[in-house]
């Protein structure tokens, strides 16, 4: 803990030494002027606490988001994509209301400050695409007045916003207490005083003229127009008291200077000029109204400039058109490139277009008469000359589909860019616009990043030369993937392998796959264990489990990228086995696969555990569930199924020690007919009976039995008997009678255990070697005892076709040892060897077995004898038409009397 605190304190000190303070800097932006006059420039200033510390400044314009969220996107102002060394920035030709922000950065790699709070430049100019009107049309109101604000323009969806004079944050009508929005109109609640600027924003991203409205709870207000007054028109401003009349001198102020002081409560201006624009207020008997801005709008028409394209193709040109509205005759049009003080490029006597082949900032104005009467200048239009270089957007990693939370990088590359320094610009249909840099990394993508991305480059030192827009690259962000696991086969056969397949929506995108085995946990859940060889993932989307013999559950997941992005884990998939396992087994009572809804069915677990749970997986379901829920009652190790509704499911046991039992498929039917077939496997060679049963009637016509959808019996019998089941009888069975059909059930056939044929040659060699080693001492002893009535009887057995050939010594030669000697307190050792015959094709012949017994006795030390008895039991099958011969036991005895040397 102490080391952690020291580390945190060390970072605090380092940050303080580097930046002079412990918190990230928040720059402060100021704008001047705050209210625009026609043709005025706007100066932005960005201030940080330590202005001399090598900061660079980035300047942003706020644009209402057209995506439908009514938020803002932030566009870097021209020339600031790499930052400016100056802490000020001048915006030329701004005519509409706009919001700005700034931030600062320094160092390499660059350290970024926070972004500043927003600052707005207000314009009272009205334009057709978005305008705000006030009713009644005045800037000041008493708290008891009704005031409405209406939005008009090229949109059907609007919001009215306001910024309090003393506030820092914007708020919406209807989202706070100050207004109610109905359609495109906001009704202000004037029950308390306020001083705020109001404006409209359209869904299409337009900002209207701004209006400063003051609501007073005092006795006096100034009545002045909220909207601009046209130059040359008359205007009247008046002072109003709430409850009484004026009885002394009234003072009117313009920009804090008294311009009228007499008993008149009105100020009349017969022909307004631009010099009349400014702040006005009135004062009477020591009381003073709030001040309001009166905007004067030039009466001159404004020229409009249009371009058929903003990019000049290589070797080509673009067309510019200048016009005056309302249109009238006699206009000349003057064209300019660069500053408005520059000489005109050309003049024309008509509204005809001109063609330009050089990049730059263009504007125009109209003039007519002598002396020339000029219109207001048009808004500027920037034209770029396309360079032969081509912009290309690349996506890394280059995946066709990206998932939520992944890390990606968008890069704008300029072909044959050489050593030229470029500035970059992005366009996107997504709601997240990349900054104007060549590379944009997204550490965790979201759906809001989905869209088309295009970019272009501008030569840094030649601002009006750029590449064309790149071809778009489409970015599709989907939710985190859910892999789908499949298993094959779903029911195990003896010795079969299990193939797992894990699929994702985009299989060619560099996925690695992780494979898990489900192990029952005492907590009633599962723990997942990685299968061998998959701890680092596999490139293949399949995995083979070899030698699987018991029921098991599996899951998979997928990952890609560096650092690796992980998918969800798949749903569980089970591989069912009907093989019994001594450590965990499931029995069904009654032992059949199908039951009526009225039947009582119990499932019992047995094995090496005292804690059990019975689980089931419905045929139509995706999830397993435990007994003791809606479908069963668990008592000890037995689950009693509630067979009051139909079901088709696989059931199995899970022990507290993590074992799976055999699986059983059980169907509960509410129909009239079921198939009675064993729920547990039938042993190969045994007989089995399958029968069709009605709930409430008997069979009166042909009954059809099906095996794997093929009719195998069709007569009046309601039973299907198989006398000796073979592996070929395994499969699905069902029955049909009088148009009604039972459900089908799987009958599993369990093979009889046999020795592994592949081990036979090894055993044969080992047996021969052991036999030779064992018989060498016996041969020596036999030779030694040859003159003392030694008898050795051997059995030689060979198998040719189906006939056994036995060769024996003459029994009279060995009559003395026709039975093994008994008596005395001699030590005896017995050994038993089972001999089983193997017939054709490696099949075990269980009907005939031979046992070899070996008895060894020793007498007194002076006369030691070694006896060996071999008893061969013969069992014979009864052949058709013949009686079985009596079983004959063949015995072979040998005596070995070792000499004293032994």
Give your account of this protein's structure.
The protein has 902 residues and is mainly beta. The protein is built from two helices and 78 strands. Strands 29, 31, 32, 34, 35, 36 and 43 form a seven-stranded mixed beta sheet that branches. Strands 3, 4, 6, 7 and 8 form a five-stranded antiparallel beta sheet that branches. A five-stranded mixed beta sheet has the order 10-17-16-12-13, with no helix packed on it. β16 and β17 (211-216) form a beta hairpin. The longest helix has 25 residues, at 760-784. The protein is elongated, with a radius of gyration of 50 Å.
- What does the largest sheet look like? 7 strands, mixed
Structural classification: mainly beta
Strand content: 35-45%
* Helix amount: under 10%
Oligomer: single chain
Q: Identify the overall geometry.
A: elongated
Number of strands: 78
Number of helices: 2
The value of Rg in angstroms is 50 Å
Provide the low-confidence segments as ranges. Answer: 1-22, 756-766, 780-902
Averaged pLDDT, please? 78
What distance lies between the first and last C-alpha atoms, to the nearest angstrom? 81 Å
């Amino acid at each position: 803990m102490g080391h952690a605190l020291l580390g945190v304190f060390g970072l605090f000190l380092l940050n303080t030494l580097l930046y002079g303070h412990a918190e990230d800097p928040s720059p402060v932006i100021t704008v001047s002027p705050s209210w625009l006059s026609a043709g005025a420039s706007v100066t932005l200033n960005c201030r940080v606490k330590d202005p001399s510390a090598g900061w660079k400044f980035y300047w942003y314009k706020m644009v209402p988001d057209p995506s439908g969220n009514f938020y803002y996107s932030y566009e870097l102002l021209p020339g600031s994509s790499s930052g400016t060394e100056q802490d000020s920035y001048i915006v030329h030709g701004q005519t509409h209301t706009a919001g700005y922000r700034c931030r600062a950065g320094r160092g390499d790699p660059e350290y970024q400050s926070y972004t500043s709070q927003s600052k707005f430049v207000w314009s009272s100019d009205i334009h057709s695409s978005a305008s705000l009107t006030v009713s009644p049309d005045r800037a000041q109101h008493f708290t008891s007045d009704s005031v409405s604000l209406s939005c008009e323009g090229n949109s059907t969806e609007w919001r009215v916003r306001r910024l309090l004079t003393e506030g820092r944050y914007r708020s919406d009508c209807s989202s706070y207490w100050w207004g109610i929005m109905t359609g495109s109109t906001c009704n202000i609640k004037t029950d308390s005083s306020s001083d705020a600027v109001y404006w409209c924003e359209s869904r299409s991203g337009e900002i209207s003229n701004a209006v400063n409205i003051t609501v007073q709870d005092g006795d006096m207000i100034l009545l002045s127009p909220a909207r601009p007054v046209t130059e040359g028109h008359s205007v009247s401003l008046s002072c109003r008291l709430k409850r009484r009349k004026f009885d002394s001198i009234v003072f009117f102020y313009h920009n804090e200077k008294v311009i009228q002081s007499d008993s008149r409560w009105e100020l009349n201006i017969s022909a307004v000029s631009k010099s009349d624009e400014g702040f006005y207020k009135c004062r009477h008997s020591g009381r003073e109204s709030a001040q309001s801005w009166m905007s004067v709008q030039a009466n001159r028409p404004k020229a409009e400039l249009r371009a058929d394209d903003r990019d000049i193709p290589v070797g080509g040109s673009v067309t510019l058109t200048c016009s005056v509205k309302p249109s009238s005759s006699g206009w000349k049009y003057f064209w300019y490139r660069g500053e408005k003080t520059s000489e005109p490029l050309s003049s024309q006597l008509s509204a005809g277009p001109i063609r330009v082949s050089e990049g730059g900032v263009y504007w125009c104005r109209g003039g007519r008469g002598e002396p020339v009467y000029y219109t207001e200048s048009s808004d500027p239009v920037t034209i770029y000359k396309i360079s032969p270089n081509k912009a290309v957007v690349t996506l890394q990693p280059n995946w066709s589909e990206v998932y939520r939370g992944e890390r990606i990088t968008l890069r704008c590359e300029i072909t044959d860019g050489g050593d030229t320094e470029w500035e970059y610009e992005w366009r996107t249909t997504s709601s997240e616009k990349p900054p104007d840099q060549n590379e944009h990394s997204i550490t965790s993508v979201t759906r809001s990043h989905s869209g088309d991305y295009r970019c272009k480059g501008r030569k840094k030192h030649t601002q009006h030369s750029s590449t064309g827009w790149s071809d778009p690259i489409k970015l599709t962000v989907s939710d985190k993937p859910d892999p789908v696991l499949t298993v094959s086969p779903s029911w195990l056969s003896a010795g079969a392998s299990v193939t797992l397949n894990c699929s994702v929506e985009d299989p060619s995108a560099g996925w690695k796959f992780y494979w898990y085995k489900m192990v029952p946990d005492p907590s009633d859940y599962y723990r997942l264990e990685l299968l061998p060889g998959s701890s680092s993932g596999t490139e293949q989307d399949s995995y083979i489990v070899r030698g699987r013999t018991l029921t098991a559950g599996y899951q998979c997941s997928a990952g890609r990228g560096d650092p690796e992005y992980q998918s969800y884990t798949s749903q569980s998939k089970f591989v069912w086995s009907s093989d019994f396992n001594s450590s965990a087994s499931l029995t069904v009572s009654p032992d059949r696969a199908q039951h009526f809804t009225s039947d009582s069915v119990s499932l019992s677990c047995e094995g090496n555990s005292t804690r059990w749970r019975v689980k089931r997986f419905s045929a139509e379901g995706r999830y397993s569930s435990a007994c003791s829920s809606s479908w069963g009652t668990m008592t000890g190790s037995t689950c009693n199924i509630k067979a009051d509704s139909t079901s088709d499911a696989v059931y199995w046991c899970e022990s507290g020690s993590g074992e799976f039992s055999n699986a059983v498929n059980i169907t509960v039917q509410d129909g009239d007919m079921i198939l009675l077939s064993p729920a547990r496997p039938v042993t190969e060679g045994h007989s089995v009976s399958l029968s069709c049963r009605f709930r409430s009637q008997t069979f009166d016509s042909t009954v059809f039995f099906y095996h794997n959808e093929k009719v195998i019996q069709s007569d009046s019998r309601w039973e299907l008997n198989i006398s000796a089941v073979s592996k070929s009888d395994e499969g699905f069975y069902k029955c049909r009678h009088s148009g009604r059909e039972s459900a089908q059930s799987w009958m599993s056939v369990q093979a009889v255990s046999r020795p592994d044929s592949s081990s036979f040659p090894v055993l044969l060699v080992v047996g021969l070697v052991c036999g030779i080693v064992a018989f060498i001492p016996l041969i020596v002893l036999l030779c030694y005892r040859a003159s003392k009535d030694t008898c050795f009887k051997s059995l030689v057995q060979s198998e040719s076709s189906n006939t056994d050939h036995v060769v024996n010594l003459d029994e009279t030669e060995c009559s003395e040892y026709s039975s093994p000697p008994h008596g005395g307190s001699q030590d005896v050792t017995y050994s038993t060897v089972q001999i089983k015959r193997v017939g054709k094709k490696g099949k075990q012949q269980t009907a005939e077995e031979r046992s070899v017994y070996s008895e060894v006795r020793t007498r007194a030390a002076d006369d030691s004898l070694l006896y060996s008895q071999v008893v061969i039991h013969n069992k014979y099958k009864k052949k058709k038409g013949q009686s079985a011969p009596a079983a004959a036991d063949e015995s072979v005895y040998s005596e070995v009397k070792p000499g004293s040397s032994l």
